[in-house]
Each structure stands twice: as C-alpha cells, then as structure tokens.
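Researcher: Please predict.
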Amino acid sequence: MNKLYLWGIIITAAMLGATYMTITYLGKSGLNGDIINMLAIAGAAALVIITVFVVVKYVRQMQTDTATGELADESWDNIGEYKNPVPFGWAVIFLGTIVWGMWYFLWGYPVDKFSQIGQYNEEVKADNAEFSKKYANIKGEQLVNMGESVYLVDCVACHGLNADGNNEVDAADLNQRISVKSVKYVIDHGLTGKLLGTEASMPDRTGLMNANNNYAPITDKEIDEVANYVAGGFKDKNSAGAKVFAGTCVMCHGANGQGVAGMAPQINGWNSKLIINVLNNGKDGAIGKMPIMDTLNPKQKEAIAAYVMSLSKGE
C-alpha cells in the first residue's frame, strides 16, 4: 500500500509540473500575472489535493471497515442490501447540486440572457442583412453565377454535380421540369396548397374525373397517357394524353401547362416563384422528400432559382 501512495505522490507532482509547464509555454513567461493562469494552477492543485485525500481516506477505510447495519428483507441471489442511511456528505452534495442548478438556471446563466446560440443567431441575422443589402440589385448572369455557387455548396450532395439527380438519396433531376414518374406520383397522391404555393390543393386520383367527364375517376391508362404528354413537353396535341389533359387538367393548369394563379403551378417549365416555394416548404415527391432549406437567405434562394431555370434553357 505504501507503494501505491508513493506512486500517487509521483503522479501528482508530474500532473502539477505538466500543468505549470503548459501554462509557461503558452504564456511564454510563467503565470505572467494572468488571473486565468493562476486559477488554472490553483484548480489543478485543488483537484490533486482532493483526489489524494479521498483516495487515502477510502483506501484506509476499505482496509479496516466491515459492513454493519440491518439487512433489508429482499435479497437477490443471496445478496442482501443494508438499510443504512445515506451518508451525510452525500446528502449535502446532492441537495447542493439542486440549489446550484436552480441558481445557475435563474440567476447565474438565465435563459433570457447571453448564450452562444443566441449570439450565433444574431450574427447570422446581421450577415444575412448585409448580404441582402450588398447583392440586392444583382440579376442576370451574375445572379445565375451566384446560384451555381450556392448550389455547389448546399444542393450538389443530393442533386449531383450536373443537377441530374441521384436515386440513391432520392433527389430529382433538375434539368427537366417534370418526369413521367413525378406526374404519376402527384396524380396518385395529390399535393397540398402549401407545397403548391397556392390557396388551392391538388386532389389525388379519386378526386380527378376522367377525360370523358362522366364523373368517374381517372383510370390507370389515362394517367399513363397524360403523364407522358406532360413530361414530353406538351408537344403532341393530337395524342391521347392531350385529350386527357384537356378534359381533366386544363381548368387548373392552363391549356399549355402554364398554370393558373391561385389554382395550380406551372408544369411546362420552371419559374422562380415555384422553385423558391419548394425551398421554403420542402416537397414530397415520387422518389423522396425534399427538405426545407431554411439555412438559405431569400437572395440565395432567388439565385438558386435563376440557376435551375438556366439549366433547362441550356445556358
């Protein structure tokens, strides 16, 4: 046991020496009259002294003490538990931590005072305001270039370097407005007004009449036909899909899929409002869910919209 004490003293001296040498190295001249350095040394010394005291006390106690007191009635595997009271020191420490916690929460570090999270939020708010002011009038090619830069930081991981999507992470191809798979999904599931950016909502297939307008739901064949027509760019006006679109979709989406204000979005191409709305609200799609991009400021979202629109124009 004497060897244990000896090693404890050696380790203690080594810890104190290492602490002092570290502060000397960082401060270049010892404690340097710095209260933080002095508190660090004092804290290290206090911890070492307390540790040594506790270890010595309880090692000696383990050597001499024997368990006493009344055993509880219950036992597990013939192992009983004494009904001894909680040691006074433990009880004081437990109650002390409760008192300290209440003080810390209400007076020492109250939630309505300074916090790192609050400081970060304020700095982000200030930076966004400065950013918006600096780039308020940016447009055209400069806006597209900004959008490409933001895209490469915030969007490329899912949508790919060429914005052609990634099925492994359920991200859509942004080089085209809509795919056959996406059209079918929206018809099957519908969309809420929040995601559309309108007051109206898109019903699912049970709320869509067939092309003959005979109050029967749209059929699987009609869904296939109209999906190919829409995803194909509304080109074949004499196709079966064009007939389905004219009888079922035109009232909300317009004759050429240009959308109707307050009713349904544009589906024959991208527009800035549509893309920004998806960034603001997210979107459930055929291959997965697009999350809300709330880390971007309004100008960055406008820039991303400009960049995405430029892709389909071949710019």
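Model: The chain has 13 helices and four strands.
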